Amino acid sequence: MQKIEAFTIKAKEQAADLVIFPELSLTGYVLRDQIYELAEIIPGPSTKRIEDLAKKTGTHIIFGMPELSEKTEATIFNTAVFLGPTGFVGKFRKMYLPTHSVFEEKRYFRPGYQTAAFSTPVGKIGLFICYDIFFPEVCRITRLKGAELIVCISASPAVRRRYFEILTVARALENTAFLAYVNLAGVEDGLQFWGGSRVVSPTGDLLTQAKYDEEDLVICEVDYSDIRPAETFIPTLRDLRPELFDELKKHSETL
Amino acid sequence: MKLTPTALELDLPEVEKRISRFIKEYVENAGAEGIVLGMSGGIDSNTVAALSSLSIGGNRVIGLMLPEKETYNSKDVNDAKFVAEKFRLKTQICEITPVLRSFYKTIPIFDQADKLCKGNIKARTRMIILYYYANKLNKIVCGSSDKSETMMGYFTKWGDVAADISPLMDLYKTQVRKLAAHLGFPDELVSKPSTPALWPNQLAETELGIKYETLDLILYGLERFMTTEEIAQQLSVQKALVEKVKSRWLSVEHKRRLPLTLKIEYRTVGTDFRLPRHTY
Questions:
Q1: What average pLDDT does range A25-33 have in this prediction?
Q2: Residue B97 and residue B194: Cα distance in Å, rounded?
């Protein structure tokens, strides 16, 4: 929480309008059974404090936290929260929960069922989380809902860096949208998160990239007028073939 | 997937950086003064000594040489000293022969001829001394087990494997050798044959019955979910050899885990008490 506060103030001093923190940045990623003590409902004490920060600094803030369902006692979501100067903007619950290799998210989280795109003073912002990037339909739907800047918060260990470096560029390019990828840095329980947060342009160019492996703050200007030429040059949205989605559905049901 | 030596190639500067960061962050988060580690003179402990020193500074690292009369080899001591000097870490020598003799005399059923049981006493004695230093000086014990010996269970349970962190445990022996070369070790140390030194003239490859170059590729194939048939075919070795390695890997899981208990209550240590190592 203190880091979120300090970095938001620092970013604001550099004229940032939107400040993004990684997946589960409020608590850390490797929580295991401690998650039951740390998960909070939204709105709750932590979102309240960060909402106050957003109001005080006049910034929009996106961060990750374990969200406790308000209807049950121990049902938790891996959630991206979006707060702004006027309060709560929205949230996204991670849809694809990795449960393989070092990941055990299905043990702790219930998946989300909704994609998310919000119209805000800082643009139409879409949200998804980490492993969702491996499923292009999440990003595609987010884009089809109108998102111009798609934010992917992440907790990706170093051994997977190459995959995310490829996929972040691919998702931006195939959707002709800006993509901000914001990853954890540092070591938790032997897992080394590779940092390297980045903003990718609608034509797949890296606009900025944070340091690998270390905490860092990078700032980047996003010019939404770049989308139109990109969308004209590579008209992937114009060329969508909805009938293929029926086929995709059919084949994935019979895998 | 092709099982050739290139499969085991690493980005060595990146690996060095990652291990150094891992060691440094662990020591800092533990609030420890530094590291104590055993230095046998072998490639693994020399490498981990060098990395420890590079990550937190040699003045915070103590390399303990723990020789004993039966397996004493001045070259091992000299090799350890060479590395300690090159990477500027402190060393101390504790000759453990008197302790071992006391054990041999104290145990009513002690069998001088059973070299494995006797050898394991040596490894566990070293562990006790390392942990004394760690306790006394507020340091952590840094282990030197590599992935090859850990997968094969080629270590003494609660002995040489006992440590707070084991930075090399995800690197095969041949990869550790390459890392050592990258760190500037002379060829002679890089290619020095490995021995657990539990008894005189013990050599790891002779005892395991396989060269590390082959073993590591078999283990790499198993790690990547390849079948024994695929591995044997690609390496042009007998399937029986691959199956022997696989069988040994699977049969020694008990050496890599906490003691097994049965489930009686609500949440159980080692099974469904799932906690992070750090606390919040």
A1: 96
A2: 22
Distance (Å) of CA A33 to CA A96, A107, B127 = 20, 10, 31
Could you identify the residue written with the tokens 């915070």? B60
Q: Kindly give the parts of chain B with pLDDT less than 50.
A: 280
Q: What is the CATH number of the domain that holds A37?
A: 3.60.110.10
The mean predicted confidence, pLDDT, of chain A is 97
Tell whether domain B5-203 is in CATH 2.50.20.10.
no
* Residue B279, helix vs strand vs coil: coil
| Chain A residue closest in CA terms to B11 | A159
Residues 26-45 of B with CB under 8 A from A: 26
B225 touches chain A (CB under 8 A): no
Q: Which amino acid appears at position B76 of this protein?
A: D
CB contact under 8 A, A189 and B278: yes
For residue B247, what are its two tokens?
């069988």
Average pLDDT over residues A226-235: 97
Check if the beta carbon of residue B178 is closer than 8 Å to that of residue B10.
Answer: yes
* C-alpha count within 13 angstroms, C-beta hemisphere, residue B67: 19
Q: Are strands B34-38 and A191-194 parallel, antiparallel or unpaired?
A: unpaired
How many Å apart are CA A190 and CA B215, to the nearest integer? 26
**Angle between helices B228-235 and B212-223 in degrees, nearest 10:** 140
Contact flag B21-A192 (C-beta cutoff 8 Å):
yes
- CA torsion, ordered B201, B184, B26, B160, to nearest 10 deg: 0
pLDDT of residue B279: 60
Catalytic residue numbers of A, as ranges: 23, 94, 130
Closest to A183 measured CA to CA, from A205, A201, A165, A202: A165
What does the block give as tokens for A249? 């559905």
**Cα A215 to chain centroid, rounded:** 17
Domain that holds residue A179: 2-253
- Kindly list the strands in the beta sheet with A76-84, ordered across the sheet, starting from the edge strand earlier in the chain: A18-20, A60-68, A76-84, A87-93
Residues of chain B with Cβ-Cβ distance to A38 below 8 Å are: 280
- According to DSSP, the β-strands at B61-65 and B90-93 are parallel
SS3 call for A5: helix
Chain B residue nearest residue A108, CA to CA: B274
- Are the beta carbons of B87 and B219 closer than 8 angstroms? no
CA A71 to chain centre: 25
Residues 6+ apart with CB under 8 A from A52: none
pLDDT at B5: 87
For residues A105 and A131, give the distance between their C-alpha atoms in angstroms, rounded to a whole number.
11
ipTM: 0.85
Total domains, chain A: 1
